[in-house]
Amino acid sequence: MSVKGKKRGRPAANDSAQRSALSAEHILTTAKSLMREQGKMPSIRVLAGALDVDAMAIYYYFKNKQALQTAICQSLIEEIYHPETPPHHDDWQLHLHALCVSYLTLLGTYAGLLDTFLSMPDGGPAHVFIGRFEQIIAPLGLSGSASTDALHLLVDYLHGFAHAQSCAISAPSHDDPSVATLSIAMMEGPFNLYCKMLTQL
């Protein structure tokens, strides 16, 4: 009696179906799907099970768990809003609003992603958000220090808001409906105040 085991290592060179089925892109897509469903970064074992391959096959594409985690986070952060054209004085606020909403939506869709971002060395893929933020506020002509302070203030607020959202979702129901209905729309007031502050720097 023969036992059919999982494929080990890289798919055979003469097996085009296996080659197309397992790739870095396919691994990342599956990992993101698992993260969205489970609310945490999937382990190599769980990911291998979902892909129906041996764990060593994943290590062919990503040298270790840290490399895989970095690739997942990089792939996710690239999904946030990116202006197609350079913002101007009359529309930078609209672009910044779109960036903030897309970032909060990303953090809300993938529970545990914020904690993963914050635990990564050197800020992980934070440079993606930073680059898009700096592009959007460029028309304001802020000094380097003012731009950095504005970035830190906004990111701290967004992370606090995302954390409050996650707590509201995971908390048991109670008599205060405002906690259970915390939505991105509730950031409008603070966001408008923040933008007004930027124009006065």
Automatic annotation (TrEMBL):
Compositional bias per record (Basic residues), positions renumbered to this chain: 1-10
Domain HTH tetR-type span(s) in chain numbering: 21-80
Lineage top rank: taxon: Bacteria
One of the GO BP terms on file: negative regulation of DNA-templated transcription
Listed InterPro entries: Homeodomain-like_sf (IPR009057), HTH_TetR (IPR001647), Repressor_TetR_C (IPR004111), Tet_transcr_reg_TetR-rel_C_sf (IPR036271)
Entry keyword set: DNA-binding, Transcription, Transcription regulation
Extent of the signal sequence: none
DNA-binding region, residue intervals: 43-62
Gene Ontology molecular function terms on file: DNA binding
Region annotated Disordered, chain positions: 1-21
Protein name, entry field: HTH tetR-type domain-containing protein
Organism expressing this protein natively: Photobacterium aphoticum
Lineage: Bacteria, Pseudomonadati, Pseudomonadota, Gammaproteobacteria, Vibrionales
